[in-house]
Design a protein that fits this description.
alpha/beta; five-stranded mixed sheet; 12% strand; globular
């Protein structure tokens, strides 16, 4: 199992950066993917830790389900970065029970310049929240993995109009759990969601999984 292809890279891909978490994959496990709110590090200050990993929603879900997990999230990531990673993971981690994908802000993108490291390829606010292209970023992501065991949710802090759009689109689609939670506390950097916020979403995700995909666990 070559996990190195799932790791972020430095310039020209010469060096791999450690994944946020990799549990015991000889036991039943799931995959998590997303940006800093999944990875547990900030896109600023050399990706410093923003919260103890045990307090992050991926770890909390794993604890509640009594399963192992691997986290292939990357701070500041866009769907353009994450979708190819997830495609690779579905092959490399083919025995995973399911994937939890917290879709980052769809206004981000990712440079294709091969000589830049993955940190420098991140592009912020390349579209506007109310542009049709922004919603299409989400729709294309969901459609890309519609045949796979992937459960989607969204980052905290989505524009209200985007929340309404995805709620209307996916209200009858159990593979998309719309995260409408507000941030009720802050992490160590005073920017990202804190422990209580992660606990709330983890409880809701676990309840949603048990209700709709109990046979996956």
């Amino acid at each position: 199992m070559n996990l190195s292809t799932l790791c972020p890279t430095t310039s020209f891909g010469f060096k791999k950066i450690e994944l946020p978490h990799c549990g015991d994959l000889s036991k039943p496990y799931f995959v998590t993917i997303g940006c800093s709110n999944t990875a547990g590090t900030s896109e600023q200050d050399n990706d410093i830790k923003i919260l103890d990993y045990d307090c992050m929603w991926p770890s909390l879900v794993a604890q509640d389900l009594q399963m192992q997990h691997i986290n292939i999230g990357f701070a500041g990531a866009s769907v353009q970065y994450l979708n190819p990673k997830l495609k690779k993971s579905l092959t490399i981690l083919s025995n995973a029970k399911f994937v939890l994908y917290m879709i980052p802000f769809p206004v981000r993108s990712h440079s294709r310049l091969f000589f830049l490291d993955d940190h420098k390829k991140r592009r912020y606010h390349t579209t506007l929240w109310r542009e049709q292209k922004t919603l299409i970023n989400i729709k294309n992501t969901v459609e890309m993995f519609s045949e796979d065991k992937v459960i989607f949710t969204n980052n905290w802090g989505y524009d209200p109009s985007m929340l309404e759009s995805i709620t209307a689109l996916y209200k009858k689609y159990p593979k998309f759990f719309v995260n409408r939670d507000t941030i009720i506390d802050r992490a160590e950097d005073d920017n990202h969601p804190g422990k209580k916020t992660h606990i709330e979403i983890s409880k809701k995700l676990v309840a949603h999984i048990r209700k709709n995909f109990n046979d996956w666990i």
